[in-house]
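Um, can you check?
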Amino acid sequence: MPDASDLVPLTFYFQKQDLLITFLVILLGIGFGNLRIKGVGFGASGVLIVAMVFGYVFAPEPVRILQNLGIVLFLLSVGLEAGPTFFRAFKQYGRKFIANVLALLGIAAVNTVAIIALSGVPIGIGLGLFAGAFTSSPALVSALQFSPESEVIFGYGVAYPFGLMGVILFISVAMQVLRPRMEAEVAARSQLSAATYRVDNPDFDGVLLRDIELFTDHNVVVSGILRERTLRTASGSTALLKGDVVRLEGRKADIETVGEKLGSAVEDIPSEDSELDTRSIVVENTSVLNRSISDLGLRLLFNVAVTRVVRNNVEFVPRHDLELAFGDVVVAVGTPYQLDQLEMYLGHEHQAVARRVDIGSLGATLFLAFAIGGIVVPMPVLGNFSLGIAGGALISGLVFGHFGKIGNFIGRFPRNATAVLKELGLALFFAQLGFETGQSFVEFLDFDAIFYAAYAVLLAVVPMAGSFLAGHYLLRIPVSECFGVICGGMTFTPGLDVIRQMDSSERPVVAYSSVYPVALILIIAVVQGMNLALVALGAGG
């Protein structure tokens, strides 16, 4: 029987394994963050919460280099994702959606500065409250560059659940109040529907689809033909034969008009014994960006049907005038050969996009990030100014993402790869941050936390209300699209689920996706601006 002194000191051993503890916390935090209650959860912030618990109970030493690496990877990935559409979005959506986002963030900045200045809340806690109220990780990362980490994390931790509930409740209540207006807007749109008819009229036998004026006059398209028990797609060069069963898409009234002239209505086209396949294709070809599905002529060129588009992890049915963006996932139906050709056209590897993360290119983006962050500019009044590693990473990502390729270095990786780098960076950053602030968070808890919770609700609701009034009544943006812009401006995806209960079309999703990349960058700049304003006012003293 071995003596107790001969046992391996496991406790001492594990305490010294910083990487082991870090990735254990990341694993537990991701599991906790993935828990959902009615579609809402903590997401990446779950790592921060678990790390803070570990920091309070075990007090492990944070590893600074992992924390800095996490910041750089996260903001670099944010820039790479936003780069392809960031600058173009101001021109494309500036009159409506971007103006509404600017109103949202402008009101948020004034509201936050006013609350912090009037209440005497410390600047670090106030900026943390703002980041938590907006449930925004980029805002949190930005705030941590200027204020004590313990104060920012305390404000973020207190505000996050109240901001989460405040945003959802505000959207839910507002949509119930505005239900009649939304229903009228939805009813007024030319929503597409589908129906199936058998061709009985001999006048259309053998006529090419592009020569049948009945379809063009009523804006109805044929998305599929069942002929001799084989389901196939249709293009303008397809001849219609008597006895074909066709699936028509368009407005309901137009479909009925066209269908009655073709023949008789039947049940939907069966899918058995079909040679057709379905494939998801990532848009990576720079030559097709900002061009609509109808302009590209995908149906005519490849004889396929585009049924869905996934953008920023949100799926919707596209209109024919929808413009494709880098990283969109196009779901198409066609034969395997047709889909192969479409995939080569939309996302072929020769179009300046790496199918994997190119290590050399990643090294170049990181080098540029550290180089830009290390530049120090003397300012006459403010002293030395530097973007730091966080600002350098963001600028580097935007530059590489915008140009796509600089020399031999690729700036656009597959979206899944960029998402993994971003999540890994945020997880590394949150883990080390939680270790350092776990104990101080508990020490900060006192009666004032009740007031901080109330401030958090105001920080979330006031900008949303002001942005809605400006967007809907001044900019004339429809209700559902206005809320889509608000959710995109706050980078708050769960809000879309509430909106789509009233409007299941792609409109709120497109509004959200149009402003999301811009909001990621602007919200970081807004936090920096608020910090400068508060320092100038002498607030939080």
The chain has three domains: 13-183+360-537, 191-266, 277-347. Residues 349-353 have pLDDT under 50 and may be disordered. The first strand starts at residue 193 and ends at 199. The chain has 20 helices and 15 strands.
